[in-house]
Amino acid sequence: MPSRSFSRLIPITPRPDVVMVRGDGSYLWDDRGKRYLDFIQGWAVGALGHCAVEVRQALNAQAAQLLTPSPAYHNRPQLELAERLTRASRLHQAHFASTGAEANEVAVKIARKWGRLHRRGAFEVVTTHAAFHGRTLAMMAASGKPGWDALFPPNMPGFRRVPYGDNAAMRAAIGAHTAALMVEPIQGEGGVVVPERGYLSELRQLADEHDLLLILDEVQTGMGRTGTLFAFEQEGVLPDVLTLGKGLGSGVPVSAVIASERASCLEVGDQGGTYNGNPLTAAVACAVFDTLSKPEFLAGVLERGAELGAGLTKLAHRFGAEARGRGLLWALELSSPLAEAIRDCCFERGVLLNAARPNILRFMPSLRVRSAEIEAMLNVLTAAIAEESSTSHASP
Ligand SMILES: *Cc1c(COP(=O)(O)O)cnc(C)c1O
User: Fold this and answer.
1) Which segments of the chain are extended strands (E)?
2) Contact assessment for residue 322 and residue 316, using Cβ atoms and an 8 Å cutoff
3) pLDDT tens digits, residue range 85-116?
4) Which residues' Cβ are closer than 6 Å to ligand 1?
5) pTM score, whole prediction
6) Cβ neighbours of 129 (radius 10 Å)
7) 180 alpha carbon – ligand 1 mean position (Å)
8) How many CA atoms lie less than 13 Å away from 235 in the CB half-sphere?
9) Is 30 a catalytic residue?
């Protein structure tokens, strides 16, 4: 009998009493054989869906060739991934890690070194309230997640936060110590907060005016999630430093930091990591990139995204909620805090959704989700909202 002793794990989040044992495309199966339509996809990780054939083939082929020669030597998949990502982003140099938080740590190291070299020792990075940049100690300080500052003091210095979407506040926060501005093109964990058009290009202008670096954290929005390979393309801006993770490996832990020629200032000895650029995960990321960078793939993301958006908008009208998003990253903001109850109700009915906030549901399906799967999710969601709003005797 396989173990079900959940108490042997350090608890990190409330989890339902099931064990997930298999994944395929848009679906997960638990150890009792129940199937779930998955609109979480490992937190926007499963760009190609669960256990995609491209990922499995790349893993198998690379596993038979070379796993880790050590960062002391070059390996082919790492070089190929750096070529692909620098060319696609029009940036200069890449470094790889395993998680989004690590990639962001490197981005901040670049900003601090660049400030030391080019801005008389400036080190501060201005970030935004309700941002999410990861869970290392420094990234907790960079993030603006409510309540986090009290968790593990003392907090890492060198960060200052301003309201998201507010470039007047950003301008006011810039001072002699500022080295970089760091934002998500759309705040993902914050509840899919989509800024007004022009936000990123104004940030670019601010950075240029004050001679600062612009760091874009595209760990969630990158790799096709919003309908273009990178979200910044939709505003025609170019960051100085770009971070990627999540969808980059479509289920395999790999992340990237990519810097422009102007920003790329790390030298031998500044950065490392046992698994950085290991061929196993780099080979997977190359295969994922080759699949989702195709124009027809990205066109599909926009088409399915429009269907999901239309369905959620219809629901929003019916229940007095607000739908927002881009590509295949969407949120439904309810008028009362029923998100967790609705999530649990959908779970019972075999649909996996994330409650990003007590009143916000988030949708991040596989980028290969089918129209019929979107429709099936919307049907279950509609029933769940109707049921939960009638039990709570309030409109959602
Ligand atoms: C998830 C996420 C991170 C952190 O990635 P990990 O792989 O969990 O460390 C950082 N930034 C954004 C925008 C994210 O969505």
Assistant:
1) 20-24, 27-30, 35-38, 93-97, 124-128, 159-162, 178-183, 213-217, 241-244, 255-259, 322-326, 329-333, 351-352, 354-357, 360-363
2) yes
3) 999 999 999 999 999 999 999 999 999 999 99
4) 99-101, 104, 132-134, 184, 188-189, 217, 219-220, 245-246
5) 0.97
6) 17
7) 19
8) 21
9) no
